[in-house]
Amino acid sequence: MARSSLPVRVVLLIFLISSPACSFVAPKLYHVRSAMNLRASVDASPYRDLHVMVNGMPGPMATAAAQACLRKGLSLAPVGLTGPDVEACTIEVKDEDTGRSASVRLISSVDMDEAEASLLGLRAGAGEENVVAIDYTHPSAVNGNARWYVEQRLPFVMGTTGGDREELGRDVGEGNFAVIAPNMGKQIVAMQAALEDLANKFPAAFAGYKLDVTESHQKTKADTSGTARAVIGSLSALSAVPFDVDSETKMLRDDASSLDFGVSKDALNGHAFHTYRLTSPDGSVRFELQHNVEGRRVYAEGTADAVKFLYKKIREGKAGKVYSMINVLEEGALE
Amino acid sequence: MARSSLPVRVVLLIFLISSPACSFVAPKLYHVRSAMNLRASVDASPYRDLHVMVNGMPGPMATAAAQACLRKGLSLAPVGLTGPDVEACTIEVKDEDTGRSASVRLISSVDMDEAEASLLGLRAGAGEENVVAIDYTHPSAVNGNARWYVEQRLPFVMGTTGGDREELGRDVGEGNFAVIAPNMGKQIVAMQAALEDLANKFPAAFAGYKLDVTESHQKTKADTSGTARAVIGSLSALSAVPFDVDSETKMLRDDASSLDFGVSKDALNGHAFHTYRLTSPDGSVRFELQHNVEGRRVYAEGTADAVKFLYKKIREGKAGKVYSMINVLEEGALE
Q1: Nearest Cβ partner of A198 from B190, B201, B286?
Q2: b/e for B121-148, b at 16 or more Cβ within 10 A?
Q3: CA dist A188 to A274, A296, B202, Å?
Q4: pLDDT (tens digit per residue) in A211-240
Q5: A186 flagged as catalytic
Q6: Closest CA–CA distance from residue B331 to any residue of chain A (Å)
């Protein structure tokens, strides 16, 4: 467990020497810098030997997850997979809150031999059980990537949605360590589960109450979110009144309405605001629930917590298992 | 079960003949009228033989409970207990929504012999198992009344708060049918239970989130409500941040602030509005919960549902048991 991380750095340096120029313009937060992770502050942490391989950068969700890992004291693996259309290159991921940063060499998914070789090198240095992958790639890559993780016996957190989810379930059977969830926002999953439990435990507790739903998302989102559908399902079970999501939900998709609804100007292009209201038939009682998310941080931090959870289970020596965010939530506070 | 209600009416007429003038000014909703209940519409109901003895009128909460019973198709017993300082009299209770009304003779609690005699008459006509009491009296009457219900083997719903609750628990042991709850507002109890479950299942799920609480009540309420304290307990367990209810809750107790907070002008003297907000450390995620109650209707209707629940249990032939509002909620929709 207390192995030095020196061999990893050596592997990384070899990568850097052979790295061609990046084929994309690095966004503000990635700067090609030193290959050395800032690790001093995490040496006392239970995660000091863990290396998180973030796959899907420079995509915004994978990058946000990598930043959240740095913020929460985790170290990034010096390599990660990227899409087949991205040329191999090295980026620097930086978390602005803590100032922690890390260089990551992106390996195109067309070069899986290189990916395997680098994983081998990484594990040789870090220890077999000390690498966990995060996947925020593309729906079309979900199933292939999952099979690769299983083949490599690489524990992973699958945050990418889409793909063939049934096949995913079959491919990643018992014996493998994984967290698979369509929504990595811990707090949102918790709220959703609480409402589902409430509807199951106390059916028709709000019998006759009228449900009103207003939600705002970025203009590019055509439909209502899966979270809204799930929450509406529970609330309409509580009110015992059918609610047609498509015709009855008030969807805001223009900037002026979203701003009025409380969305920050900066978040007009990426937000998920929801207000549900249950009103008693005579109007004397009103319950209102809002969950308002700007940006990707809540999902990114939930992903980092899922990594911590998975690593904890691995170190407890248990048999591999596929977990959900509910399991992560049940674990409670993660150091 | 299908006994005619005629004997009850006969008992009631005897009461009316011997009734002195009411010793209080009848509020708008009670009018001394005919002694005949409007019962035609409930003859097909499973509650057609049930007579609800509402104790504590003309107090506003007992009166609201009686109106809720009428609204929900239940018949009132023609007698009810009132305080020792109220002279015996007959009032009419009317539910404005349905137009249903009932005359109820109030028997002062100093005349418990008369109360017993009238209960005996009522049961002789209606059937032993067909009378259930509701208690919205006074904290000082809670324990004495409960002992009387037990002595009379009269199933009851205790909505009165205060008194010695431990003694109450001891006095009303197994074998007696009762619903005892400090809050009869079904929907509020459900929400409170859901948050408590959430905090138990997913401790620290909102770790680091900041909690803000604003509540508004009528000017005469000095402290924060028990519901707010319970909800804050759950939310601060979820955020894993201590919250001092007394110093950190923003309490609104003046009309202007309450109106700004959304309270109707008519409800300034009787409302319970609460807004809880959980905000992530970086401000990108916000959850908000509101429960806003005007008047007494939510508690009154929960009480009527508790009566229905209790009567259902009695008719199922089960052994007597003391239930809570959680049990009522678990039962789901009540016809």
Answers
A1: B190
A2: bbbebbeebbbbbbbbbbeebbbebbeb
A3: 11, 13, 12
A4: 999 999 999 998 888 899 999 999 999 999
A5: no
A6: 7
Q: What is the pLDDT of residues B296-317, one digit of tens each?
A: 999 999 999 999 999 999 999 8
Residue recorded with tokens 């097909």: B44
In chain A, residues 249-268 whose CB comes closer than 8 Å to chain B: 267
Cβ(B133)–Cβ(B153) below 8 Å? no
Kindly list the strands in the beta sheet with B250-252, ordered across the sheet, starting from the edge strand earlier in the chain: A250-252, A210-217, A271-279, A285-294, B285-294, B271-279, B210-217, B250-252
Indicate if A78 and A39 belong to the same structural domain. yes
Instruction: Classify residue A77 by its DSSP letter.
Output: P
Q: What are the tens digits of pLDDT across the range A110-136?
A: 999 999 999 999 999 999 999 999 999
| Residue B169, pLDDT score | 95
B203 and B55 within one domain = no
Nearest by CB to B187, which of A206, A291, A297?
A206
| B87 touches B20 (CB < 8 A) | yes
Q: Are residues B178 and B320 in the same domain?
A: yes
Domain presence at residue A26: no
A209, A280 contact by CB (below 8 A): yes
Is pLDDT above 50 for B13?
no
CA dist A261 and A222 (Å) reads 18
- Pick from A191, A228, A194: nearest CA to A213: A228
Pairwise CB contact (< 8 Å): A284 & B297: yes
The answer to whether residue A72 neighbours chain B at the CB level (below 8 Å) is no
Picking from A71, A74, A67, A131, the residue whose alpha carbon sits closest to that of residue A93 is A67
Q: Let me know whether B152 and B205 are in one domain.
A: no
Specify the CATH number for the domain of residue B287: 3.30.360.10
What domain range includes position A162?
A: 35-183+297-330
Residue contacts between A and B (CB atoms, under 8 Å): 128
Mean pLDDT of A61-87: 96
Handedness of CA B111, B114, B116, B119 (dihedral sign): negative
Give the Cα separation of B277 and B270 in Å (integer): 23
Whether residue A134 contacts residue A307, with contact meaning beta carbons closer than 8 Å, is answered with: yes
| Dihedrals phi, psi of B329, to nearest 5 degrees | -65, -40
Sign of CA dihedral B41, B43, B44, B50: positive
Cβ atoms of B135 and B160 within 8 Å: the answer is yes
Strand partners, A6: none
Kindly indicate whether the ipTM for this predicted assembly is greater than 0.85, answering yes or no.
no
Are both B126 and B190 inside the same structural domain? no
pLDDT at residue B255 is higher than 90: yes
Domain count within chain A? 2
